[in-house]
Every structure is written in structure tokens, then in C-alpha cells.
Amino acid sequence: MKDFKKSSSKTVALEQDMADTMTIVRIFGHCFFSGVSASLEGELKHVYDRYSQKIIPFFHPEIPSKSFGDIETTSLWLFGSGNPVENGNLLDYYYRNMQGTGIVLSAATRHSREIVKFIHVLRALGNKLPIEILYRSDLLMKAKQAIMLAASQPKEVLLGDELTNYNALKRALSRAGLSVDIIQEMPFPQQSLSLINMQKPLSKLDKSDFLQL
Fold it and tell me: How far is 117 from 99, CA to CA, in rounded Å?
């Protein structure tokens, strides 16, 4: 009974600490990220930095590198690829610079086939949202090239002879009761796709922790 009470007391204390932390984090978000932000001067700057670190403890203060069409070249982007955050507060930096809508996927080489197929589907649907592929160190160059090609190949190359040759297409679609015009009129637009290397920003994160997020 004594051991039970001792364990219960520890559990209650931990639960209370968690509840207190979540309450402070909610207040923190309300004060600094809702409407007009509080001024970051004096003691408030210290509080802001402290609780920013609690929210994203696993991030390294270095911005990820981003690659575009030429995947041999790491291009500078909005945040300055590979540069540390200037003011030392990563949360504030992301909050004030990141905005917009798009499609974000995490990837490894073993996922590349599925990602290529998914991009093909997005092209068939006429997707206009930008796509960002996040990876660490487990996406081989061959997989990167396949993903980039899936997003950038012309419609004729993407579909191949079977789906761009009128007679072959007519025979294939007639069996499904569809018209040739359905495919020929679909634009299959090239996608705005970029690869984002998260290796350094996640350098503090152990593999086991990453899987639990």
C-alpha cells in the first residue's frame, strides 16, 4: 500500500506538471501568436525563447536546404538555404516567414515508387498546389530523379505511346466505355515540386523519437 501511494504521488505530480506546461503553452500562443504579438523586450524575450524551445525541442536552428528542378544544385529559397536563424528563435522565424498552402510528403527511397504514382494521380487531377518532399539522408539520387521526372515530364512522355497514340488509346478506352477525348483533353500539368533536406534541422532528433512524433 505504501509503494502504491508513493507511485501514485509521483504520477499525480507528473500529470500536474504536464497540465501546467500545457496551460502555459496555450497562454504563450495566445500572447505571442494571436492578433497583435507582445513586444519581445527585456524579460519577455527570455520567456519567449524559453517556451519556443519547449514547443520544438528537436529542431536545429539551421534552415533546411531546398532543391528544385536541377537536383544537383541546392538553390537558395525564401529562408536562405542552409543558413542559421538570424535572431536565434526558430519558432518566431518559421511563424513569420512560412505561409501558403501546398502538399507536403515525407519520403525515403523505399517510398519513391508510391510517391511517383501519387504525383501521376495529382497531374491527372490537374493539381496546382506546390509539392514539397521532405527527407533526411535516406533518399537516393536515383529516387530523387524519378520523383522529379514524375512531376516535370511532358504529357506525351508521361503517358507514353499507348495513351497518346489515338488508335491505341481508342481501343483501350472503348473497352472501359470511355471516350478518347477524356484523356486527350486532360492537361496533366507539370508540378511545382521541391525536395527539402531535413537532415540538419532534425539532427538533434533520435530515430526512435522521430517515429513517435
Answer: 27
